[in-house]
Amino acid sequence: MELTINHQTRFFDPAPHSLEELLQAELADKTQGVAVAVNNRVVPQHIWASTPLKANDQILLITATQGG
Question: Is the pTM above the cut of 0.85?
Fold first, then answer.
């Protein structure tokens, strides 16, 4: 399945079935402080597991960082 993550096209085989599966593969257990939008719609963390992904979805991952 082809997905675009932060403006970079990626191919996944096997395809992740949900947003949560994708995030586990991409971020491991580092999902605290992460905001996600799929096709320009913010997806609250409590529904990541039930959010299906489709080919050509546009995903934006934003992570909080510390610094000054």
Answer: yes
CATH number assigned to the domain covering 2-63: 3.10.20.30
Show the low-confidence residues of the chain (pLDDT under 50).
none
Burial code of 2-23, b = ≥16 C-beta within 10 A, e = fewer?
A: ebeeeeeeeebeeebeebbbbb
Q: Which residues pair with 36 in a beta bridge?
A: 61
Task: Enter the tokens of residue 24.
Answer: 């586990």
Dihedral angle sign, alpha carbons of residues 24, 42, 62, 7: positive
Of 17, 15, 11, 25, give the one whose Cα is nearest residue 50.
Answer: 17
Task: Break the chain into its structural domains and give their ranges.
Answer: 2-63
Strand partners, 35: 62
Give me the chain's average pLDDT, please: 93
